[in-house]
Amino acid sequence: MCQLLGMNCNAPTDVTFSFRGFAQRGGNTDQHADGWGIAFFEGHQTEQDDDKGLRHFVDHQSACSSPVAELISRYPIKSRNVISHIRKATQGRVALENCHPFVRELWGRYWVFAHNGDLKDFTPRLHGSFKPVGATDSERAFCWVMQELAKSHAGVPSVKELSITLRELAAHIAAYGTFNFLLSNGQALWAHASTKADSQRLYYVERKHPFAHATLSDEDVSINFADHTNATDRVAMVVSAPLTTDEVWTAFSPGALLVFEGGALSSA
């Protein structure tokens, strides 16, 4: 299975510490060596609705040895919404076009999606602008989600309205197999977990004042977040397996679609 990493914040924040540990799972501390990718939403420093810009990096090399991953682990790109993925191929060859996260445009915004799982016999009819480029079940599912969102709403709906529609769509796809995913359009981060198996779960942690010390699970590296944050900062992290050994990570319930806004779990 693949692994996911998502970050949602109330102020532009870099993900270098968390990504450094996450990348080690791409062929070093774990076997997810069939490619990786990461996407950062960027925009106005104070207005989150303006986060329409996107930096998108993918590589078919393993994350632990990729020069591009090494760059990302040292380059403090600041973003309010980040999605990253390390791949263990189940459908589709090891190639750039099959690396997550995938990107599509809808309603004048970029949408970013990454999936962990394996969908059997999910072959929906796709039309219009949303067709897969690669050969993965993941990109096929993303295209269908985008297609159905476009059919359900005339323009960009509220986060709450999007969450209602996404819960219905996620439940439909989850009937075909494991469907853990991260999705963002720069306004919020949606995360869905479809199983309770330890190897296929999602976990989240909310970091806020007073910020504490944290140590990576996959590398002997620590950080004191208090030295790098303000009292008003809030950061939510979502991962397939806890990244740190000294933070309390909360497991998703099976079938849950959670929404993170402004660095915190939302009621949407």
What are the segments in which pLDDT stays under 50 over at least 5 consecutive residues?
A: none
- Assigned CATH class: Alpha Beta
Judging by the overall fold, what is the CATH architecture? Answer: 4-Layer Sandwich
Question: How far is the first residue's CA from the last residue's CA?
Answer: 29 Å
Query: At the fourth CATH level, what is the homologous superfamily?
Result: Aminohydrolase, N-terminal nucleophile (Ntn) domain
As a percent range, the share of helical residues equals 10-25%
CATH topology: Glutamine Phosphoribosylpyrophosphate, subunit 1, domain 1
Number of helices: 4
Q: Tell me about the biggest sheet?
A: 7 strands, antiparallel
* Secondary-structure-derived class: alpha+beta
Radius of gyration: 17 Å
What keyword list fits this structure?
6-stranded antiparallel β-sheet; 4 helices; 15 strands
What this model shows, in words?
The chain has a seven-stranded antiparallel beta sheet with strand order 3-2-4-1-12-9-13, covered by helices on one side. Strand 5 and strand 6 (109-116) form a beta hairpin. The mean pLDDT is 91. By secondary structure, the protein is of the alpha+beta class. It has helices at residues 16-24, 67-74, 137-152, 159-174; strands at 3-14, 36-42, 53-59, 78-86, 102-106, 109-116, 180-184, 189-192, 203-208, 213-215, 222-224, 234-239, 250-251, 257-261, 264-265. It is globular and about 50 Å long. The two termini are 29 Å apart. It is built from four helices and 15 strands. The protein has one domain (3-265): Glutamine Phosphoribosylpyrophosphate, subunit 1, domain 1, CATH 3.60.20.10.
